[in-house]
Design goal:
two-stranded antiparallel ribbon, mainly alpha, 9 helices, single chain, about 230 residues, about 55% helix, Serine Threonine Protein Phosphatase 5, Tetratricopeptide repeat
Length: about 230
Amino acid sequence: MRFPASTSVWSAALVVLCLASCAATVPSSRSASQGSAASSKSAAVPQAKPAGKGAVAVVSKPVEASRPSIVERDAAKGSYDLALQQMQSGQAAAAEQSLREVIKGQPPLPGAYANLALLRLRGGDAVEAEQLISEAIKRNGKNPEYYNLLGIASRRQGHFQQAKEAYERALQLDANYANAVLNLGILYDLYLMDLVNAKRYYQSYQKMRPSEAQAISVWLSDLEQRARK
């Protein structure tokens, strides 16, 4: 990993953790529930083995995070690394406290806002999560994972059009970002009731994630049955 020679700002690929697992794991079944509930038909908080269709892991790749100046680097990096370690070990409260300290730094790290947003989503606070991820986007508007997080936070508040736009923006930045493709399929299927587009995104996701094709096939069969009614 090579860093810029500038002594003012430097950047590096840093991991935004999903707390348990960052791979988008697709469940084999789904059941009805209210749109805001963390259950099988809602975009629940990311987890290693989702309980149902909407429980999609949201961050899976290293992301670019702006680093502070060389002078401030050591202290800020230490706090951020500590927060990531705490997240990885399941110390959510400690990680949140560490991340809140990091975002007080100058300049604050966009990755710290994103990880704190992820923690708030897990804590059921989609409103603060949206505010935090919006701050991350202000500082780094080229990261598709940030927009995917924004889409989930928006969807959980019932802001479906805003969620759609956020997922679409993620795909504009990275057309191969499978999590956003799946989340769009879920949004069209369960919340916008647009079965044509839901099918299109599910099929795209199947091609991206062949290992999960069987589960998606079940959803596609369900779509066809509903379309015939």
